[in-house]
Design brief:
two-stranded antiparallel sheet
């Protein structure tokens, strides 16, 4: 069983959480003025790396709040969890 650290509730079992996909995706400021293709790219196109990845998670069976996580997509190791608005941690190789 994987333990995930909720920034508000502390460590909980993985069954309490749901992944919300790639983190740190900014909504287009001019959403009404961009083409349908550009808006579709914003909605649906995400990276799918093999390695470290910033993700959004929801504590659905707990506080029901969203938070961000830095997770390895192969080993499922979670290096950090942090609240929205907090600075994201650097990737283990030193990049962001």
């Amino acid at each position: 069983m994987l333990l995930i650290h909720c920034p508000w509730c502390g460590p909980r079992e993985e069954v309490e959480f749901r992944c919300g996909g790639q983190g740190h995706i900014a909504r287009p400021a001019d959403a009404m003025d961009i083409s349908d293709a550009e808006y579709a790219r914003y909605l649906f196109m995400r990276t799918n790396p093999k390695g470290w990845h910033y993700e959004r998670w929801n504590h659905v069976h707990g506080c029901r709040r969203w938070f961000n996580a830095l997770r390895h997509t192969v080993t499922h190791e979670i290096r950090a969890t942090y609240r929205p608005g907090e600075k994201k941690p650097p990737l283990p190789d030193g990049t962001t």
